[in-house]
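Would you be willing to look carefully at the protein I have copied below?

:::
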Amino acid sequence: MNTLSLAQTAASPASLPSRTVGNLLREWRQRRRMSQLLLATEAEISTRHLSFVESGRALPSREMVMHLAERLDVPLRARNALLVAAGYAPLFRERPLSDPQLAAAREAVELVLKGHEPYPALAIDRHWTIVAANNALAPLLSGASPELLKPPVNALRLSLHPQGIASSIVNWHAWREHILARLQRQIDVSGDDALGALRDELAAYPAPPDADAAAPDGTALNQIAVPLRLRTSIGVLSFLSTTTVFGTPVDVTLSELAIEAFFPADQQTTLALREFASTRPAHEGRGINAG
């Protein structure tokens, strides 16, 4: 399996918030487009008490911070920030993937990636940095610049960068729109400034010189999902993608880990990938530099 130093990847420590817990809770409530009345009703507290917490007139208990964070579906990293802002210790640990306690999680990721062959799959962190990939990813990356394949490798940058695989994407306009929309939803959910910067960077990339014209409005209505159609050394391949996450993580790093698995969208892709897997030498170089 093509592993990008999975056991060596370390999560960066959460930064200490400079805002009050009330301000942070208000920001999360507004991000979720909830009124004080709706949040108070779902949390089974009075609107007056919630107003006092947000304004700083009342300091919430640790249990109340966690209760409100649960109702607001706040990510674990941000829940730690809420606790610290309220004067409490963080509850959720952030371990590097090399930590022995995450050995079972690493093995699960490797099993999923390997088990998905001969179809491509990769594991990414919260900023779309690739931390592991299987051997089937190689034919998708044949046109990418070696510089973009040096770790840390960002999957979205690799996809849309002019020196990445952008010129190989047959439906570049549709795929770009899908990527930017998905990234924006992730920003809306997480409030992550780094993702906002990544979105702006990707949006500024020019279209490849030979990119097909943008599809007319309503074209996507005839599809079940936006496919990735890619010109490769083994032909034009078409994929549908799915995302897998851990269901009940209590570790920050694990909560932010996801597996992107690509499935053939047509018979031609299925046959091409199976043939590639059966003829590829075991010693052949990997598509991404593991560092």
Remarks:
- Residues 3-17, 217-221 have pLDDT under 50 and may be disordered.
- The beta strands are 2-3, 121-124, 130-133, 228-232, 235-245, 258-264.
- The first helix runs from residue 21 to 31.
